């Protein structure tokens, strides 16, 4: 990313709002595992790292390297999560905003948040600006997406050691062919989202 992608942050910094955070989520579309969010804050004189962008556009190796560089560069960062149970109880959208609230609360105090997405004004997310495709337009949001992605991928890799039939170490819980075949053959775990249609279908077949 170039300095242009600090444009949202720059506008707030010049207004005296020096503690700006970027917030993003990972795992909304997965069939298993929690939804993870990250909030990241940079100093106004921060020099952007090359290659910081939407985490989905980066290789795992590149994400892992940038994760360490972002942590070293940032003024602060925090992780938030919503559990599988909360996803099933609240629905995935509300659970995602709950996870964002948790990450943001851990990075207090801040002046303004830049949040990936739309429709955020309906939720209790404090003073913020929603940015559609924010991880392509804001350095802080892109950095948050990388932090959240690495944290969640590592969690799913750990879970894959205990539940080896679903290829979570490769698909991170998304509904790939290997994951769906594993569900059909080995059933549903406590880490599967029962409110999601493919999981619900398996459960109905088991009755």
Give a verbal description of the structure.
Helix 2 (60-73) packs across helix 5 (139-162) and helix 3 (84-90) crosses helix 4 (92-105). This protein has one domain (3-161): Ribonuclease H-like superfamily/Ribonuclease H (Nucleotidyltransferase, domain 5, 2-Layer Sandwich). It has eight helices and five strands, in the order αββαβααββαααα. A five-stranded mixed β-sheet has the order 3-2-1-4-5. The model has no long low-confidence stretch (mean pLDDT 92). Strand 1 and strand 2 form a beta hairpin. It has helices at residues 7-13, 60-73, 84-90, 92-105, 139-162, 168-171, 177-186, 197-206; strands spanning 20-26, 35-41, 76-82, 112-116, 128-131. The protein is α/β, with parallel strands linked by helices and 207 residues long. It is 43% helix and 14% strand.
Helix count from the secondary structure assignment: 8
End-to-end distance: 51 Å
How confident is the prediction overall: mean pLDDT? 92
The structural class is alpha/beta
Question: How can the largest sheet be summarized?
Answer: 5 strands, mixed
Strand numbers in spatial order across the main sheet: 3-2-1-4-5
Q: Which architecture name does CATH use?
A: 2-Layer Sandwich
> In what range is the share of β-strand residues?
5-15%
Number of strands: 5
Based on CA atoms alone, the radius of gyration comes out at: 18 Å
Poorly predicted segments: none
Order of helices and strands: HEEHEHHEEHHHH
Shape, please? globular
Q: Might you state the CATH topology name?
A: Nucleotidyltransferase, domain 5
* Tally of domains: 1
CATH superfamily: Ribonuclease H-like superfamily/Ribonuclease H
**For the record, what CATH class applies?**
Alpha Beta
Secondary structure: helix percent: 40-55%
């Amino acid at each position: 990313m170039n300095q242009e992608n600090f444009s949202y942050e720059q506008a707030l910094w010049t207004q005296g709002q020096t503690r700006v955070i970027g917030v993003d989520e990972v795992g909304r579309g997965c069939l298993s595992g929690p939804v993870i969010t990250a909030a990241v804050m940079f100093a106004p004189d921060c020099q952007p790292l090359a290659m910081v962008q939407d985490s989905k556009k980066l290789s795992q190796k590149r994400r892992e390297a940038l994760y360490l560089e972002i942590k070293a560069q940032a003024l602060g960062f925090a992780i938030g999560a919503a559990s599988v149970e909360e996803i099933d109880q609240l629905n995935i959208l509300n659970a995602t905003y709950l996870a964002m609230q948790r990450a943001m609360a851990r990075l207090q105090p801040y002046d303004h948040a830049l949040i990936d997405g739309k429709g955020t004004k309906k939720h209790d997310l404090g003073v913020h600006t929603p940015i559609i495709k924010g991880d392509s337009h804001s350095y802080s949001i892109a950095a948050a997406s990388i932090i959240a992605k690495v944290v969640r991928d590592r969690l799913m890799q750990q879970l894959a050691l205990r539940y080896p039939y679903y290829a979570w170490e490769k698909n991170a819980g998304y509904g790939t062919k290997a994951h769906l075949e594993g569900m059909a053959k080995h059933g549903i775990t406590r880490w599967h989202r029962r409110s999601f249609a493919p999981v619900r279908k398996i459960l109905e077949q088991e009755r």
